[in-house]
Amino acid sequence: MAMMAVIDDEQLVRDVESRLPSLPIAYWSKHKNVVQKKASCARYPSIFELEFNNIYWQTLRSSNGTFQLFGAYYDIRKRSRIGPAVRILGMIDRIEPKVRTFCQLWFDGQKEPFIVKTFEYKYIWFNKWGNYKQGIYQPYLIACQIPKPFRGLVPASVSLVEKQCDTATNNLRVLYNRPLDDEKKGFAVCVKGLDFLYDDLSVRLVEWIELLGILGADKVFFYELQVHPNISKVLRYYEEQDRVHVTPLTLPGGQPNVPGFQHLFLSKKTTHKRQNELIPYNDCLYKNMYKYNFIALLDIDEVIMPKLEEDRTWHDLMERVVPKGLKVRNDTYPSYNVRNVYFFDRDQHEHEWAKDTPRYMHMLQHVTRAKNYTKPNQYVKCFHNPERVLTLHNHFPIACLGGTCHSYPISTDDAHLQHYRADCVRTLKKSCEEFKENQVRDTTIWKYRDELIQRTRRTLDVLGFFKASTGASGSLLRGGKDSLYKR
């Protein structure tokens, strides 16, 4: 009879913390005998008293609206006008919330919290975009200022309450992911919640991750709603190599999380989908703001492509672009945007196959694009400077530290966003035919061809995505005849 593995409390705490980074279980486990004694005002809530929602969210039910909280982050960026603060990311089922709330800030070794009035509810949306009505969960960034006696100390956790001395129903670990040497890496890429339950995009995903690696992305941060098993296999492989990080994700409140039904909801309720996407994007910003010089929000069918031959990487590109921006205004920009251009996927691949390139290399095989770009500031993607941006939208910053969100437009001579789609986005239906009728050949990506083919082949081979060869070694790995199978 097999023996059951015994796991001690310390291992259990580490395991829970890895699955739920927002839960201050390690702090609670260490101090529970002290902090849960009777306090003159608020006592530290037991982790067993917290109200969880859809696994990853914690709840505050107020007298005027319900808060679903996702994460809390320590912000000491120099340009922040409110000074050191804890920022809480979540959704509230109210527009312009009027309810007064307080932050209970718990510092290590303190028996009672330091309580401050919530400084602001920062709306991460514009009312003209839709869903601007009560009862629908709206994305917010909530700020709590650190009081002067505690400046320099990082709170262990924070609770949001309506009355100062309430025992909280939420308690979020305050994240402060700052490198020990304060040295930032170059580029992080953030990808919204993956919703590919039925689409096996695993091979395309490998090509995309490998291309980002060549371009100089230090790490890709994925959020995962529901994905095909082969996509899971790819993500786990890159996680083991520390090249990607995957955060599981759910939708808060009464929104559906059942596989299939969730996909249907997101495909039909587009505005809800867009509002929900702002949570992973901003969580990714705040978890990584001290670790990278630039953060890009990309979908897996998009890549920011340097146009000049001498610009092999994003680093090369930005080495030239940032000084150009400084000539326009004597300061760095919160973001640097590239124009969007469509690389259309022809129906059933009715195109010539590029020679000496495997047919499964989707981007290398699609080198015909619309001649015209979408309009400036429409469907752009950015390199964001995390020292300057406060809240992010898919295409640009919504709010910035120190004033207006100026974005520097990178010239299409220097770079553009290669967007691989079968069709235009719905809002561009009128001009889409014109895009399709006027196309040009653009082989800029081919400057990476040999390295990209080699890297992608190697990964697909390790993952077992090739059919076993019956002939000479590697006979299936030549030209456009590579055979793939999907498990």
From TrEMBL:
Name the major location.
membrane
For this protein, the Enzyme Commission number is: 2.4.1.-
Identify the keywords attached in UniProt to this record, alphabetized: Glycosyltransferase, Membrane, Transferase, Transmembrane, Transmembrane helix
Q: Pfam families attached here? A: Glyco_transf_92
**Topology in membrane:** Single-pass membrane protein
GO cellular component entries: cytoplasm; membrane
Q: Does the keyword Glycosyltransferase apply?
A: yes
User: Where in the cell?
Assistant: Membrane
Kindly list the GO molecular function terms attached to this UniProt entry: glycosyltransferase activity
Q: Which family does it belong to?
A: Belongs to the glycosyltransferase 92 family.
The name this protein carries in UniProt is Glycosyltransferase family 92 protein
